[in-house]
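Q: Two folds, back to back.
A: First:
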Amino acid sequence: IGLDTSRELVKRDLKNLVILDRIDNPAAIAELKAINPKVTVTFYPYDVTTPLAETTKLLKTIFAQLKTVDVLINGAGILDDHQIERTIAVNFTGLVNTTTAILDFWDKRKGGPGGVICNIGSVTGFNAIYQVPVYSASKAAVVSFTQSIAKLANITGVTAFTVNPGITKTTLVHKFNSWLDVEPRVAEKLDEHPTQTTLSCAQNFVKAIELNQNGAIWKLDLGTLEPIQWT
């Protein structure tokens, strides 16, 4: 989803796209550059589970290079309920840390210009897959956290919304473990449901970014973009 979304983004009128990831993929970066040579695409190695101080240090480097950053997309995620602590660290704690770190640069109380945060949740955030309660709860936490950030926009100048994909054809759902092995065939059973392609998900993802509705909870499922009402 992240790569296809990046492909869609560079087709737009961007100045810069910065990719942060644990894995360096020069071929993917070269492809993004080739799609639209007017967009400067850069890569920095980054593990979202790194401590807050390290995240802030990396952002200082990026802001020094670019001067301004308009949008932060938090997209890291894993699906494996055997790895309880890592699931929470990647899916939720890391997202909280990157959000907290970028507020140092964006918060209008510190003279910052504000900004936009787009967090990738999941439909499991409001409709749990009960066989993977840790994953589902981590995504519910993302939705809840983002709603709070959105309601603080008048204080910080930072707006926020979530995009929540339904079942999408990615490596994430090919094979994964259920909590306490309550359903050994969870991946196979999930695969029996209708799915969407990463491209159709990415296209709606970019639509949500362009709409930029503070506090929105977008459901991206089966090629549709639908607002969710959740209080």
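A: Second:
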Amino acid sequence: KAIDSVTLNDRDLKKYLLTENQWAELEKIKDFLFLFKEVTTIMSGFTYPTLSATIPLYNILIDHVENVIGDVNVIGDENEEVIEDVDNDESEANSSNNNENEWSQIIKNAAKICRLKLLEYYNKTNYSYLISTILDLKLKLQYYKDNEWEDELINDIQQKLVFY
């Protein structure tokens, strides 16, 4: 309402008045970014430790992004294929006459790039993150079991905990 009010009341800004379709597109972007805002707020907590929440929050974001992308047929380090795929998708989106489909494709392309960046940082985590999750009274080892991590990996984490 505030943006519409300002653009309607200033003749120099009337050309920037957003249409209903543009508002709908912005709403889709807002919906996609909402979870990132929430995770950022949680991780920005300076009055409590957040290391134990790192792995679960990364998993939440990666799942969110993969849901937006749909069928994820690329695995982690195949960056070139994903970037080529994103470039091809952008070409298809630009030639599309369907505005809604075009915006969905733009968000999907952003999600693909976002997934790459999340996986890049996720892969930099180490056993300290995994162990801190186990030591967190709210998460414990049960977090890994509830999220269907492989038994071999869970046992490896347990062994590292004992070793440290």
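Q: And?
A: Confidence is low (pLDDT under 50) at residues 74-83, 92-97.
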